[in-house]
Amino acid sequence: MPHEAPYRIALIVIICVTAVIGGFHRWQAAKSGERISHKEEGYLFATLLRLAGLVLWLSVMAYLISPRVVGFAALPLPAWIRWCGLGGGLLGAGLMFWTMSTLGKNLTDTVVVRKEATLVMHGPYRWVRHPFYVTAAVLMASVTVLTANWLIGLCSVIVLAFLAVRTPHEEKMLVERFGNAYRNYMAKTGRFIPRLSR
Predict the structure, then answer these.
(1) Pairwise CA distance, residues 154 & 54, whole Å
(2) DSSP 3-state helix, strand, coil percentages of the chain (rounded to 5)?
(3) What is the Cα–Cα distance from 6 to 83, expressed in whole angstroms?
(4) Distance between CA atoms of 155 and 113, rounded to whole angstroms?
(5) pLDDT (tens digit, 9 = 90+) per residue, 92-123?
(6) Average pLDDT estimate for 142-159
(7) Which H or E run contains 18?
(8) Is there a contact between 14 and 142 (Cβ–Cβ < 8 Å)?
(9) Is the entire prediction scored with pTM above 0.85?
(10) Distance between CA 55 and CA 22 in Å, rounded?
(11) 3-class DSSP state for residue 128?
(12) DSSP reduced 3-state for 36
């Protein structure tokens, strides 16, 4: 599939940019030395979420290495729509930088709230309570459109469904930690979509 080469290069750009942003901010957050447990999330749920993420990554890597491997799931999208995926991916990378920079050392990959965590309500958190999940959705949708592959899209939907299911538990932990301050924040800020009346 020689015509896939430009899209594969664009995908590499998105992966590299997001990996640098994500890696840097995770490294900064990990410098606290605090060990983060997945016990509160539930080991079974954490395992299933990470397995879904692994299948997504394997699908993306398969496309990247040899598009023929996942060619059975190809979507007949016009080139201009596929190139919108690159624009969306770069937008997603920008959102990732903004979100992770704002969150700072509060960052974890589970529902656990760090011991030294602060309640963040500025930056993208001013608009939605979970901008990182919105960012993940933008990136996954962009990669799906760029690769024009429904298998990657299906895996993305499954991962996002797991994140959506986990969100109420995460918010319960935040309410336990921050009390009425987080309840008030919930009352005026949408979970994934900004509220029109604030």
Answers:
(1) 13
(2) 75, 0, 25
(3) 10
(4) 27
(5) 999 999 999 999 888 887 767 787 889 999 99
(6) 98
(7) helix 5-30
(8) yes
(9) yes
(10) 20
(11) strand
(12) coil
Cα torsion at 83, 146, 87, 158 (round to 10°)? 150
In the beta sheet, which residues pair with residue 190? Answer: 128
Higher pLDDT residue, 197 or 54?
54
The two tokens of residue 13 are 């750009």
* Residue type for position 153: G
DSSP type of residue 192: S
99 and 30 in contact (C-beta within 8 Å)? Answer: no
Orientation of helix 150-178 relative to helix 180-188, angle to 10°: 140
Angle between helices 5-30 and 79-103 in degrees, nearest 10: 10
The first and second tokens of residue 166, run together, are 């986990």
Q: CB atoms < 10 A from the CB of 181, how many? A: 13
Q: Is the pLDDT of residue 38 over 80?
A: no
Q: Is 4:64 a contact under the CB 8 Å cutoff? A: no
Q: In which band, very low, low, confident or very high, does the pLDDT at 180 lie, cut at 50, 70 and 90?
A: very high
Tell me the C-alpha distance between 181 and 22, whole Å: 28
Mean pLDDT computed over 58-63: 98
User: For residues 155 and 198, which has the higher predicted lDDT (pLDDT)?
Assistant: 155
Residue 36 and residue 110 in contact, taking contact as beta carbons nearer than 8 Å:
yes
Residue 82, both tokens? 């596929």
